[in-house]
Amino acid sequence: MHDKTLAELKRSLDAGEFSSRELTQHLLGRIDRLDGALNSFITVTYDQALAAAEAADAARAAGKAGALTGLPLALKDIFCTRDVRTTAGSRMLDNFIAPYDASVVEKLAAAGTVSLGKTNMDEFAMGSSNENSHYGPVKNPWDFAAVPGGSSGGSAAAVAAGLVPAAIGTDTGGSIRQPAAFCGITGLKPTYGRVSRYGMIAYASSLDQAGPMARSAADCALLLNAMAGHDLRDSTCVQRGVPDYTEELDTPLAGLKIGLPREYFGDGLDPQVEAAVRDAIRVFESLGASVREVSLPHTHYAIPAYYVIAPAEASSNLSRFDGVRFGHRCANPADLIDLYKRSRAEGFGDEVKRRILIGTHTLSEGFFDAYYKKAQQVRRLIRQDFLDAFEEVDVLMGPASPTPAFDLGANKDPVSMYLQDIYTIAINLAGIPGMSVPAGFVGQRPVGLQILGSHFTEARLLNVAHQFQQGTDWHRQRPAFAEENA
Amino acid sequence: MALEHADVQRAAHLARLGLTDDEAARYVDDLGRILEMVDMLQALDTEGVAPLAHPLDVTQRLRADEVTESDQRSRFQRCAPAVENGLYLVPRVVE
Question: Residue B25: how many CB atoms within 10 A of its CB?
Answer without folding.
Answer: 12
